[in-house]
Amino acid sequence: MSLIKFLSSKIFLKQLILAIVALIVLSFLLIQWLKVDTNHGEFIQVPELKGKTLDVAEISLKDNDLRLEIQDSANYNPNYPKYSVIEQYPLAGAQVKEDRKIYVTVNPSGYRKVALPNIVRRTFRQAKPTLEALGFEVGNISYKDDIGKDEVLEMRFEGKTIKNGELLPITSKIDLILGNGNKASN
Question: Which CATH fold would you assign to the domain 44-106?
Answer without folding.
Answer: Trypsin Inhibitor V; Chain A (3.30.10)
